[in-house]
């Protein structure tokens, strides 16, 4: 189930307070400023700084 649009409008990166980009197919929220993503598990965003994963550079 996709995340609620209202929730997506108000949540921000816990580290820099920047906008997060929802990647539904990868089940994650991406912060371009910090070059990390936060996983979504069982439809719950895990917005803990220690849970952030580095984005793969291409």
UniProtKB/TrEMBL annotation:
Which InterPro entries does UniProt cross-reference here? Trm112-like
GO CC, any one term? cytosol
Coiled coil location: none
Identify the Pfam families for this entry.
Trm112p
What Gene3D superfamilies does the annotation carry? 2.20.25.10
> Superkingdom, according to UniProt?
Bacteria
The entry sums up its family as follows:
Belongs to the UPF0434 family.
Q: What is this protein called?
A: UPF0434 protein THEYE_A2002
